[in-house]
Amino acid sequence: MTDTGAGPYLELLKKVLTNRIQMETPSAWPAGSGGAAQEEARPGAFTAHTMVSPESLDNVQYCVERALADGVPGDLIETGVWRGGVCVLMRAVLKAHAVTDRRVWVADSFEGVPEAGDGSHPLDQEMALHNLNTVLSVSADAVRAVFESYDLLDEQVEFLEGWFDETLPAAPIESLAVLRLDGDLYVSTRDSLSALYPKLSPGGFVIIDDYNMAPCRAAVHEYRDAHGIKEEIKAADSVGVWWRKES
């Protein structure tokens, strides 16, 4: 894209979102919680506005800016937002490039992840991530407050509150240019892809944050196989992946 002076603003924003300005704070996960998520946690993530890596934020910025530069139609969405940091970055990219005709959709239960009971996918039951809902649950009002702290809460930000199987199929989204999934579980990934991938415009980007987790990865490959999706899967960072929709 044409240089608009957006670069320094977005670089500083990403450092603030990931709490790389003040590094003395602890990691995101309680002691003894275990699992891949704890192993990937960065110093400072607990008080940051996102748990994702700097490389993952770079990937989000790249996908959004490339979609804008190439004129890919549609809005931007993240399913599973925690404190909202990635969505804040999406909105900041639109603002930095003076884009006023696209929205950022902030989709989350705002209650953590669904409980993996007897009828849930076996991989979700095995992970039992709902046991960490004290960390994963962030209210919609708290996420709005994060947007407000960056002066980025406005009419281009839309909240979808509730479980994905209830909110995403009926969401008033006509088309998407960037679809980012961060729901961790098989069911969350499946429901997000089923409802939203058909709305992703040709040339649009899909980002899967939790591809390193077996439940998420299983849902991704099940969906790709069922719909004949052959686009190359590329690494976003050590845990997430992305691909660009060809048609």
From TrEMBL:
Molecular function as annotated in GO: methyltransferase activity
GO biological process, alphabetically ordered: methylation
SUPFAM superfamilies noted in UniProt: S-adenosyl-L-methionine-dependent methyltransferases (SSF53335)
Keyword Transferase found: yes
Enzyme Commission number: 2.1.1.-
Sorted UniProt keywords: Methyltransferase, Transferase
PANTHER family: MACROCIN O-METHYLTRANSFERASE (PTHR40036)
This protein's name: TylF/MycF/NovP-related O-methyltransferase
Organism: Streptomyces cinereospinus
